[in-house]
Amino acid sequence: MPDVFLSYATEDRVTAERVAHGLEASGLSVWWDRRLRGGADFSREIDRNLQASKAVIVLWSARSLDSDWVRDEATYARDEKKLIPVRIEDVRPPLGFRQVQCLELIGWSGDRSAAGFANLLASTRHFDGVAAHTGTPGRAAPAPIAEPPHARSSRRRTTVIVVLVAAIGLAALVIALTSERSAKNPAANAARFAILPFDALSDDPQARYFANGLADQIATTLTRNHIEVLSRDDALTLRAPERSALVERLGVAMLLDGTVQKDGDEIKVRTHIEDPVRHAIVYSSAFDGSAAHGDDLQAHIATAIVNVLACSSRALRPGNQLLDPALLAHYLHACDLVANQINRGPTETLELLANFRAVTVGAPNFVPALTDLAQWEAQFADGFPDQRDAMRKEAADAAQRALAIDPKAADAYAAQALLLPRSRFAEREKLLRAGIAADPNWPHPHGYLAEMLAQVGRTQEAVAADQVAASADLEIDWSNEATYFQARFGGPTAPCIDRFTTLMIVTPGYSGSHELFECRLFAGQLDEAVKIVRSDAALYAGTALGDAISDQVTAMKTASDADRRKAHSAWLALAADSPNLQWVAVQNLAWLGEADAAFALADAWQSPAVNDTQDTASLFSRYTESMRRDPRFMKLAARIGLVDYWQSTGHWPDFCADPKLAYDCRAEATRATQP
Length: 675
Prior knowledge:
The chain has about 675 residues and is of the alpha/beta class. Among the domains are: about 5-125, 3-Layer(aba) Sandwich (Rossmann fold); about 185-325, Rossmann fold (3-Layer(aba) Sandwich), CATH 3.40.50.10070; about 525-675, no CATH class. The protein has 31 helices and ten strands. The protein has a five-stranded parallel beta sheet. It is globular. The termini are far apart.
């Protein structure tokens, strides 16, 4: 039984061979068509190994996009939740595969120490049953933590709380948060869903095409995730006058209907979810977007609707049975605010918490609402200083209530981890791994674990955990954060640029310009980065922070001493005027190559809560490489609790394994902690 099945186009055999040999040298068993035995039935042998493998790696290239064999194998792997897509050329995966985040091996020469291959290896080892061998030869494998092992997951919320956004204190701004997942066991879902064909309100062929495609995409995604969907023909019968009798006979619990209208250059979509038994509308939505980006808009709308339908599936599952239409409407509205409302301010944040709270009052044993309230209230409490203590207490109480009812409530463990100070890294890790052990297929603990691992410098593992969180076909979309994570920690930048560019096109008012700015900066696209900084859409447009960032990019572009000094002065002035931005100034001074100034500012900042209010993951990003290469880094790490974590767990940050590092991390850490 192979660990990995490798799917590729025949013309890409050289790259496939490199991948296979790299995985095998790392201790994994790989099946690819070079393993076919003489006289074997070709298709039967492939099918047997495809089914037996624990993970399927698909190499996407211009040739494999046109290969029926590769598409069939990829479809099977996706439906079985064991797909690991890898781009070996700059191509876009085909429709049906774009919701699963791709890893990158573009231009890979076979070097097993390369970041792309390390991410592939780590992602593969997250699958149940894949051999857990030591790491890359020549590098010591980290000592195992005595906690439950990693397992697979589905998909997630996203909270890319970016350095600058967090520093400004906009805790309510998160990227594409989400909500609920479907059960992996079809028997657990008694509810049946009817997806009525959407009505095209205009004669425009694009409107009809869009309407048909949107309904089909929603139905396909739900079916793939074991949520039972009525056939298209049966769904059409529900437009007949005797609908009530048909609903009862067909066992329909929820009905989705909608309209599509082409209005000039815009496409307008209106949808609603109805409880056909109780004759109540429990959710409605409106989407407007550019017809010129129809495919991207269709995928965006389908994902948003599926997120809410997945919530209703969870609510109606045996054991939950949230049947009161008013409570279900509260729950779905909160799910929508979490999953689909990207530009969420304080008002929307309090609104989503109020809706979850209403469900916990009306249905006190409905565990999903308890864990959602606990998780998101823990997440957002710091954004409301006057209510922080009360919100944190309510979150802790809700998590405890959920675990008392269901000890396998994974998000309750995640909420408890979120309530801990950031500096208690090991305790947070223990709780998150407990959540993964409680429900390996639930994405949030994987996603939060990725964030925690990044904060202690275990960036390759962090990227892999984010890939697991992003790999489901339903849920909060962790794939936004997964692409950003890859770019931030030295991986490919193209997926990040592509994703956030698309989001800004199909999501009116989307304020994800900072992530797009950073990814363009990481890619060396300085002119494009400057345009974003100076645009009205930038979060910091017209502020001292925006001016400092603009000076920074200009200095990077011109490399002149005068521009460098100007940027240097701008960051020092900003840090003096705005203490909450000192951490941002430290990072950007480091990126300018001003390590002395960065350490001096960090040393002058004596806030004991530095690692409880700021994202220490930034210490391991592209920004701060000049600091990590300096032995003084260990003194800073010791002051904010990182050295204690590394020494007590035996898990050292990835950069310590770099053979070019001029000092020994362990020895320098010991010196840094001595009186």
